[in-house]
Amino acid sequence: MKPKSNKIQIPSFDETTVIGINTSLPDYKLAYNVNNALAIDLARHDDLVFEGTPFAFFYYTAGENYNVYNLVSLSSRERVLYPFKPRIDYLLLIQNTLSPERQMAIMRSLRQAEGIVHAFIMEKDKNLRFVLETIAECEQQMINKKKKQTDINTVRQQMREQEEEVAQLRAQS
User: Fold this and answer.
1) How many structural domains are present in the chain?
2) Domain range holding 113?
3) What is the pTM of this model?
4) How many whole angstroms separate alpha carbon 167 and alpha carbon 94?
């Protein structure tokens, strides 16, 4: 029998489009404007926490086999997650393949959105990989937390239904 291999799973970002955004808008206004520009529904989730510092984290998915969107602030009051040059205030990550036409339509919409000074597609180099891995970890934690809450809510609902059945049986006796 072959011994098990303990390899670390490194996420692939080949099918992720990374857009750098410069703006002076606060995170909630930028998310609102991005939602309007792209007809999506980014919602704020638990902040991405890196070395004890929180960074705003927004998430949207239309479901399985569709694009997943993350909007992440790269700065907080205390520090900057990563000092990109030129300066970037937010990253918009779009997971799953985009056609060149769709990519251009997204860029056109973002550049016309209110409050966005500049938006550009970033090259995925080694400097960006660190940030993408941190964001991927945060997203996975958020998904796991949602699953756990769903499981707990399902169990609670089942318990309520059982209690109602017992109460009905007692009332009939």
Assistant:
1) 1
2) 16-150
3) 0.73
4) 50
